[in-house]
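Re-run with default settings, no changes from the original entry. Doing this only to confirm the output is reproducible before filing.
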Amino acid sequence: ADSCFDDSRASVEFEDAFKWFIDRFEDYGSSTEEKFDVIIMDALDPDRLVEIVGSLYKENAFINSLSNALTEEGVLVVQIGGSESIADPPDEMGPGKDTANMMEALQSVFESMHEYDEGHSEFDAPWTYLVCFKDSITRASWYRNAAEIDVELHQRT
């Protein structure tokens, strides 16, 4: 295919992600929808003081639906904003309190989380991402080398 959007395995939905996930995956095991291996969430930056952000990252139904929408080996990747510096206050005390709330909610449904900074994402400064794993075996894959990953991808396709 010339574009990933032309691939029959791809489906693009233009909907309210909150509503879409909650409507389909609020209750574990009750959905007839196919589950995802990976969900990438690039929503509003949780470190921005915008009214909707507070409820977005405190909404347990949404966080639970994200976990329920993943396979047992599923991974959630979340962009959590600009990387912290040594001069920044702890998330719980500063403008990052919504980030802290979101991470607390995610910890309640994911077995393991890994935070990393990426300085090559074409922003003005390094950006932080959170990778949430539903099980420890998938978490171990985070440390695999490129050759091991290439072999597994080749076997899956």
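The chain has a mean pLDDT of 80. The longest strand covers residues 70-82.
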